[in-house]
Amino acid sequence: MIGVGMSGMVILCGIFAPWIATHGMTEGTLQYRLKPPSTDHLFGTDQLGRDVFSRVIHGARLSLLSGSMVVLISAVIGVSLGVLAGYRGGIIDNFLMRLTDLLLAFPSFLLAMLVVTILGLGLKNAVLAVAIAYIGPLSRLARGTTIKLKGFEFVEAARAVGGGPWHNILVHILPNIISSILIQMALNFGAAIVDIAGLSFLGLGAQPPQPEWGAMLSSGRYYVQTAWWLCTFPGLAIMFLVLACVFVGDGFREILDPKHG
What we know:
- By secondary structure, the protein is mostly helical.
- It is 73% helix and 0% strand.
- The chain has helices at residues 2-15, 17-20, 52-88, 90-104, 108-119, 123-133, 135-150, 153-160, 165-201, 213-220, 229-256.
């Protein structure tokens, strides 16, 4: 419930960002550059005189959309490949799992860096790159649970009465693996936020003037000794959202996983 509450706060900030933000996300005046937190600027101003609070609030929308797209893309592709490989077996299983092994051979962040370097800079390419990096673990998870389930009596009975592969997968396999997938997706969401912020920090993701939290950290690191608020508040926002995702993932595990605890 704590995780849901924390996530709900970030979601509300993302939805109502234009009304919550006190200034425009790109609106700035050099006269007010690098001002510390005050009643006029709750989180201070950056090197271009833009309100940091407003940019952090608008950045919540970017982070939520980016994380959601990563989770959805990786889940659709990874679960599809894993279920198909686990159910069909044989040559198809070997071929798809070797592709998965190729993805798993690289750390997820390094693989995302490689992909975004090939595709080009930008937040959309960063999202796609991180999604590709997360296909492997979800594929392995879906394959393992599918192999386990297809040997159960209810699946064999459905096959014996004439149920086709797609019918068995959609009716008997997917509903029984969805709990494990949801737990992994919740945890992947937080990791995706960190990876996208990392790519933006390195200049490979969101580009100025997009108010992405990782990009804000990158631009603020040059002023960390004179304007501590430039890095502090975007960093706290990332920590808050990731912690919420961890809480939600643990909560899903307690509710959906009968073996937990």
